[in-house]
Structures are given as structure tokens and as C-alpha cells.
């Protein structure tokens, strides 16, 4: 089986539910407060493990209870955490407000900011091991670029989930093999609106024209568009009750990656990932809401797909 290395963030998610978002200066009553393990890097790594991939994670946590909780949950889900660093800064935190199934997130990078290029260089063995290297943007951008260079130098394919989006250097784009933004990230990247499925198809073609070989744009309730080898296709969602969308994008990225490392086509990968993220949104939480491989396969069989 091919090897996947995720280089990214690990967060403690402080989650609260509210019937409606407060206006600035207003207090509203919420409930169901909980602390979950999350972070886009950790979620994607956990999801890859749960969906059957061979996965290692390189990232930083603090020497605190949140850091311990993250490392123990990641190991429990099957992520190899030999690349996880414990540093003298508090574990990253995400404050998440869930409202009507959707969410707003505010991040404090904490230990994730300690992911420097030096940490990448000190873990060269992981890059010799990896066939795919998966990146997001919750660690410093210079480290993302340095990581992509290290991955490429070792012959690995580079996958970038540009979340949260920021201006990206051309050199990074030139190193990316698969780019997976959602529609608002695609809008920020292209500096123009991306409207509807046709708009997303045009956006995918535009991103490819900027030198990225393969592109998938996720569209929430409209599914996704994917562009591989020149053609652009749309894939719709699988209908499930939406409880909490946290980690749905992470689950989607993981589902695609697991299928690609198994040599399956992008069409099959997108179909599998769509079913996995549909199950994820039907549950609350981050990495805990990601389904297992068996659950996704049973769900696909029930749907006749
Ligand atoms: O993608 C979801 C994740 O984004 C959450 O788990 C939170 O930690 C933020 O990083």
C-alpha cells in the first residue's frame, strides 16, 4: 500500500451549539459545550486512517492535556504519530460555534506555529517514506512551501487543501499535484465570485490554467467539481441529515487520497469521498465524526453505488 504523510495542524476544538449566531456585542444562550480533538491536519490524518490508508502525521502539540488527548486519539484511530512533536507552547485551539448544522471557527495557532522549516528538515526520513504529502494552511506558509519542496525532492505527490486560504506563492502552486479548495477558497484564490456548478467548472479550468495538474472544488450542498486531464466533471452530494459540517472537508480530502493510493480513478475517489463526508456531516464532532471504511462501504452498498 502507498504511504501518505500529512504535515499540518492539531487543535483542541472548543465547541458550542447555538440556536442563532449572536450579533456583535450580544450574548445568546447556547449549550452542548464540549472539547473535541481536531485541526485540519489531525482530522485529515485520522480520516485517512479510519478509511483504510497508511498514514503518518508530522505536526506540533503543546505539553498539556489537549496535546495528550490529540496524540492518544490519533493513535487510537490508527495514525502513526512518530512525527508528532511536543513543544513548549500551548496546543492550538479552535473555538467553534455550531448553528443549524453549519459552523464558524476562530483559530489560535499555538503550537502549530512551531512547525518551522527546521522541523521539516529534522524529519527527512518521513519524506523518504511518503508517496503522497498532504498539506493545509494552518501551519506557517513558509513551512508549507518548504514541505512541498521536500516532498517533491523525494518524489512524492503534493496535495494542498488551501484552508484557511491566504495569498499563495507561485512556487508553491508549481509544486502542487492536486489542489482541493472549497468554493469560497476558490473565490479568494481567483479574486472573483465562483457561482453555481457552472461557475465552479470554469474556476477549476482557470486554476488548472495556472499550472496545477488536478483540481477538485468542493461545493457543500452542490457536491463538487473535479478536473483531471483536461475534462471537468460534476458529482452531486448524497443526501443525509446535516448535524454538524465540521471536518466534512477533511473527510472528503482523506477519502480521495485513500482511493488514489489504491490506484482507483478520480471518479471513483470522488464518489467514495462524497459518501464518507455525507456520513461525517450526519454526526457531530471533528475526527470522531469521520466514518470507518466499513461504514462507508456499507453506505455505498445501501445507495446502490
Ligand atoms: O476542518 C475542521 C477543523 O478546522 C476543526 O477541527 C478545527 O480545528 C479547524 O482547524
From TrEMBL:
<dbReference type="GO" id="GO:0019303">
    <property type="term" value="P:D-ribose catabolic process"/>
</dbReference>
<keyword id="KW-0963">Cytoplasm</keyword>
<dbReference type="GO" id="GO:0004747">
    <property type="term" value="F:ribokinase activity"/>
</dbReference>
<feature type="binding site">
    <location>
        <position position="285"/>
    </location>
    <ligand>
        <name>K(+)</name>
    </ligand>
</feature>
<keyword id="KW-0547">Nucleotide-binding</keyword>
<feature type="binding site">
    <location>
        <position position="289"/>
    </location>
    <ligand>
        <name>K(+)</name>
    </ligand>
</feature>
<comment type="function">
    <text>Catalyzes the phosphorylation of ribose at O-5 in a reaction requiring ATP and magnesium. The resulting D-ribose-5-phosphate can then be used either for sythesis of nucleotides, histidine, and tryptophan, or as a component of the pentose phosphate pathway.</text>
</comment>
<feature type="active site" description="Proton acceptor">
    <location>
        <position position="250"/>
    </location>
</feature>
<feature type="binding site">
    <location>
        <position position="280"/>
    </location>
    <ligand>
        <name>K(+)</name>
    </ligand>
</feature>
<feature type="domain" description="Carbohydrate kinase PfkB">
    <location>
        <begin position="1"/>
        <end position="293"/>
    </location>
</feature>
<comment type="subunit">
    <text>Homodimer.</text>
</comment>
<comment type="pathway">
    <text>Carbohydrate metabolism; D-ribose degradation; D-ribose 5-phosphate from beta-D-ribopyranose: step 2/2.</text>
</comment>
<keyword id="KW-0808">Transferase</keyword>
<comment type="similarity">
    <text>Belongs to the carbohydrate kinase pfkB family.</text>
</comment>
<dbReference type="InterPro" id="IPR002173">
    <property type="entry name" value="Carboh/pur_kinase_PfkB_CS"/>
</dbReference>
<feature type="binding site">
    <location>
        <begin position="249"/>
        <end position="250"/>
    </location>
    <ligand>
        <name>ATP</name>
    </ligand>
</feature>
<feature type="binding site">
    <location>
        <begin position="39"/>
        <end position="43"/>
    </location>
    <ligand>
        <name>substrate</name>
    </ligand>
</feature>
<dbReference type="InterPro" id="IPR029056">
    <property type="entry name" value="Ribokinase-like"/>
</dbReference>
<dbReference type="InterPro" id="IPR011877">
    <property type="entry name" value="Ribokinase"/>
</dbReference>
<dbReference type="GO" id="GO:0046872">
    <property type="term" value="F:metal ion binding"/>
</dbReference>
<protein>
    <recommendedName>
        <fullName>Ribokinase</fullName>
        <ecNumber>2.7.1.15</ecNumber>
    </recommendedName>
</protein>
<feature type="binding site">
    <location>
        <begin position="11"/>
        <end position="13"/>
    </location>
    <ligand>
        <name>substrate</name>
    </ligand>
</feature>
<dbReference type="GO" id="GO:0005829">
    <property type="term" value="C:cytosol"/>
</dbReference>
<feature type="binding site">
    <location>
        <position position="244"/>
    </location>
    <ligand>
        <name>K(+)</name>
    </ligand>
</feature>
<keyword id="KW-0067">ATP-binding</keyword>
<keyword id="KW-0479">Metal-binding</keyword>
<keyword id="KW-0460">Magnesium</keyword>
<feature type="binding site">
    <location>
        <position position="182"/>
    </location>
    <ligand>
        <name>ATP</name>
    </ligand>
</feature>
<feature type="binding site">
    <location>
        <position position="138"/>
    </location>
    <ligand>
        <name>substrate</name>
    </ligand>
</feature>
<feature type="binding site">
    <location>
        <position position="250"/>
    </location>
    <ligand>
        <name>substrate</name>
    </ligand>
</feature>
<dbReference type="Pfam" id="PF00294">
    <property type="entry name" value="PfkB"/>
</dbReference>
<keyword id="KW-0119">Carbohydrate metabolism</keyword>
<keyword id="KW-0418">Kinase</keyword>
<keyword id="KW-0630">Potassium</keyword>
<dbReference type="InterPro" id="IPR002139">
    <property type="entry name" value="Ribo/fructo_kinase"/>
</dbReference>
<feature type="binding site">
    <location>
        <position position="283"/>
    </location>
    <ligand>
        <name>K(+)</name>
    </ligand>
</feature>
<feature type="binding site">
    <location>
        <position position="246"/>
    </location>
    <ligand>
        <name>K(+)</name>
    </ligand>
</feature>
<dbReference type="GO" id="GO:0005524">
    <property type="term" value="F:ATP binding"/>
</dbReference>
<comment type="similarity">
    <text>Belongs to the carbohydrate kinase PfkB family. Ribokinase subfamily.</text>
</comment>
<feature type="binding site">
    <location>
        <begin position="218"/>
        <end position="223"/>
    </location>
    <ligand>
        <name>ATP</name>
    </ligand>
</feature>
<dbReference type="InterPro" id="IPR011611">
    <property type="entry name" value="PfkB_dom"/>
</dbReference>
Amino acid at each position: 500500500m502507498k504511504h501518505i504523510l500529512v504535515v499540518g495542524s492539531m487543535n483542541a476544538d472548543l465547541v458550542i451549539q447555538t440556536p442563532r449566531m449572536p450579533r456583535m456585542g450580544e450574548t445568546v444562550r447556547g449549550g452542548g459545550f464540549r472539547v473535541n480533538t481536531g485541526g485540519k491536519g489531525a482530522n485529515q490524518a485520522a480520516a485517512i486512517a479510519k478509511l483504510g490508508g497508511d498514514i503518518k502525521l508530522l505536526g506540533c502539540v503543546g505539553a498539556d492535556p489537549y496535546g495528550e488527548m490529540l496524540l492518544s486519539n490519533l493513535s487510537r484511530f490508527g495514525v502513526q504519530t512518530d512525527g508528532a512533536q511536543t513543544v513548549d507552547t500551548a496546543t492550538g485551539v479552535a473555538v467553534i460555534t455550531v448553528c443549524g448544522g453549519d459552523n464558524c471557527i476562530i483559530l489560535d495557532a499555538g503550537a502549530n506555529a512551531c512547525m518551522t522549516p527546521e522541523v521539516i528538515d529534522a524529519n527527512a526520513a518521513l519524506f523518504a517514506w511518503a508517496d503522497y504529502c498532504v498539506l493545509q494552511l494552518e501551519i506557517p506558509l513558509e513551512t508549507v512551501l518548504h514541505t512541498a519542496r521536500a516532498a517533491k525532492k523525494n518524489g512524492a505527490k503534493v496535495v494542498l487543501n488551501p484552508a484557511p486560504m491566504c495569498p499563495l506563492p507561485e512556487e508553491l502552486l508549481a509544486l502542487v499535484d492536486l489542489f482541493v479548495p472549497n468554493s469560497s477558497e476558490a473565490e479568494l484564490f481567483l479574486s472573483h465570485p465562483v457561482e453555481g456548478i457552472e461557475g465552479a467548472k470554469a474556476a477549476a479550468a482557470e486554476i488548472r490554467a495556472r499550472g496545477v495538474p488536478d483540481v477538485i472544488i468542493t461545493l457543500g450542498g452542490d457536491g463538487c467539481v473535479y478536473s483531471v486531464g483536461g475534462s471537468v466533471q460534476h458529482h452531486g452530494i448524497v443526501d443525509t441529515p446535516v448535524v454538524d459540517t465540521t471536518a466534512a472537508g477533511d473527510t472528503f480530502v482523506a477519502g480521495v487520497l485513500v482511493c488514489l493510493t489504491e490506484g482507483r480513478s478520480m471518479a471513483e475517489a470522488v464518489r467514495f469521498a462524497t459518501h464518507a463526508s455525507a456520513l461525517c456531516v450526519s454526526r457531530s464532532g471533528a475526527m470522531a465524526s469521520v466514518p470507518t471504511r466499513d461504514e462507508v462501504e456499507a453506505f455505498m452498498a445501501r445507495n446502490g453505488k
